[in-house]
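Example for tutorial group B:
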């Protein structure tokens, strides 16, 4: 039954009401009856189904209503994000009853409702002969993990606000609930900070951009930039909240900071480099220009985070912490003096000093710090949570020590990595990770004791955009693999080897039609579309370039 309905991610259970055969019609008389706490979901549903069907879905109790309710009984069984969706005809005058454990559960239930209506439900005003009908079913469902995320790197290539909103809709359609926004890096600072205007005046623009892998000899010789104003950010956060998605901001420190240092040279290690000569970085890789370990730098970033906290209600705030080369601190007399003054053993402890400072600072303000697994170096800050990206190891160490973890190992869920071998794939970087590989990804490493496993908050897929210069390229890398990832994050799947990949592929044949209706430029199962094979984008070796490793 699940396979016929092609629900993705797969729900916990689907009961086919064979005793009440036939279909439940929706038509211009169908009303929308929103119980307390479900009003914003009703608005979203009216807008989506109204656009598809042309029906008004007027507010009201019926007859033949779609009813949305928050239910304590559903919460007890399936948690606040769980839901029960019934189209079984057993409740008088009701076409559809969506009961959620909380408002979020009702919202996820309506995403399932949309899938039950078929791919046309994702179009605006399709020509439809047979009317709109729902199969008679009862779906009971709830997520495996509370953190089901996607990271989008808007620094290496900028995603304009409207495209961010579109991604939030795509996340919602797949029941993903965390949007990790990677806002700053060496190649661009993308969020307006009112008290430090040069961060965007200077830090959001670079004069040219490496085309392809960092080993490529090619450049795009035009200025590149963009940033979100604080009003843009407020709009993104509100749009996400209406879809029960939390936006987790990331401000990277003490590494990945060249754009900030280009804007404010005093942030860098001025006794070892002429930071006034630095510009926003134009190529890729790990950058040596890191923040200086001074009180002034801490104050500067506290100012940044004050504005960030005003904009983002998320409990977790990401401070990066990855790929911070220690060479400048080793060479810098000022940094060495600082290490002695603070009684630290070495440069790793200096990195940890940065992170501990912001751990305390965020905790004092009712928030929690999360950082990449390098924040384990030199000792993990007391309240810190870890995004485990260099494999499972950092996550296992952190969870075993009682810290919360989000599993996002690059070997499995870095969607910038190519999804098939062969020279027809655009811009090959990293490992080949196919749709099936992602489907068989297991966020909880085998053998992790239950007390540690309880600290795995969930999982996220990461999209780094060095080789994705526009929305088509992002779509191509993200889809269809995000559909497999969503099922891993939401559904109660068996162990990787026992997963029914053939069944998933069958459901995907319908899901591709949903993605078509949504205008997603996914990688077709048969290989790249000719349009995606444009010159300069292919993975063929570039003449004169060193081999790509
Ligand atoms: C990362 O990929 N450097 C977190």
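The residue assignment follows.
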């Amino acid at each position: 039954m699940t396979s016929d309905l092609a629900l993705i991610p797969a729900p916990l259970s689907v009961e086919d009401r064979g005793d009440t055969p036939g279909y439940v019609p929706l038509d211009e008389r169908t009303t929308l009856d929103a119980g307390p706490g479900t009003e914003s979901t009703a608005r979203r549903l009216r807008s989506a189904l109204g656009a598809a069907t042309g029906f008004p879905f007027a507010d009201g109790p019926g007859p033949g209503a779609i009813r949305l309710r928050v239910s304590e009984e559903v919460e007890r069984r399936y948690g606040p994000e769980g839901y029960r969706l019934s189209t079984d005809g057993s409740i008088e005058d009701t076409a559809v009853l969506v009961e959620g454990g909380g408002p979020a559960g009702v919202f996820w239930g309506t995403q399932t409702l949309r899938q039950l209506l078929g791919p046309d439900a994702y179009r605006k005003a399709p020509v439809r002969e047979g009317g709109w009908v729902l199969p008679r079913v009862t779906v009971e469902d709830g997520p495996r993990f509370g953190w089901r995320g996607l990271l989008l790197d808007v620094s290496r290539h900028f995603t304009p606000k409207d495209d961010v909103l579109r991604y939030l809709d795509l996340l919602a359609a797949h029941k993903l609930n965390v949007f990790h926004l990677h806002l700053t890096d060496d190649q661009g600072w993308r969020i307006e900070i009112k008290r430090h205007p040069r961060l965007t005046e200077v830090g959001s623009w670079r004069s040219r951009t490496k085309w392809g892998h960092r080993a490529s000899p090619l450049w795009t010789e035009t200025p590149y930039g963009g940033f979100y104003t604080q009003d843009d950010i407020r709009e993104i956060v509100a749009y996400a909240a209406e879809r029960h998605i939390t936006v987790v901001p990331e401000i990277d420190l003490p590494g990945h900071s060249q754009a900030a240092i280009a804007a404010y040279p005093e942030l860098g290690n001025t006794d070892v480099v002429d930071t006034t000569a630095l510009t926003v970085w134009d190529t890729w890789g790990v950058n040596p220009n890191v923040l200086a370990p001074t009180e002034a730098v801490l104050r500067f970033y506290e100012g940044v985070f004050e504005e960030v906290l005003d904009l983002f209600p998320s409990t977790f705030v990401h401070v990066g912490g990855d790929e911070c080369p220690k060479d400048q601190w080793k060479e810098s007399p000022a940094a060495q003096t600082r290490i002695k003054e603070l009684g630290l053993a070495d440069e790793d402890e200096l990195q940890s000093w940065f992170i501990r400072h912001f751990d305390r600072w965020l905790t004092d303000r009712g928030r929690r710090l999360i950082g990449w697994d390098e924040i384990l170096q030199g000792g993990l800050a007391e309240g810190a949570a870890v995004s485990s990206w260099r494999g499972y190891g950092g996550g296992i160490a952190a969870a075993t020590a009682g810290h919360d973890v989000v599993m996002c190992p690059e070997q499995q869920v870095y969607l910038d990595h190519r999804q098939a071998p062969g020279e027809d794939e655009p811009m090959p970087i990293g490992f080949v990770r196919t749709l099936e590989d992602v489907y068989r990804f297991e966020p909880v490493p085998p053998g992790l004791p239950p007390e540690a496993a309880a600290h795995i908050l969930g999982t996220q897929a990461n999209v780094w955009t060095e080789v994705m210069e526009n929305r088509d390229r992002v779509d191509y890398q993200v889809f269809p693999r995000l559909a497999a990832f969503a099922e891993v994050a939401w559904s109660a799947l068996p162990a990787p080897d026992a997963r029914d990949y053939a069944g998933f592929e069958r459901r995907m044949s319908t899901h591709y039609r949903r993605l078509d209706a949504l205008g997603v430029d996914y990688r077709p199962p048969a290989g790249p579309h000719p349009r995606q094979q444009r010159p300069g984008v292919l993975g063929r070796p570039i003449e004169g370039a060193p081999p790509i490793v």
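The first helix runs from residue 2 to 5. Compare this with the pattern of hydrophobic and polar residues in the output above.
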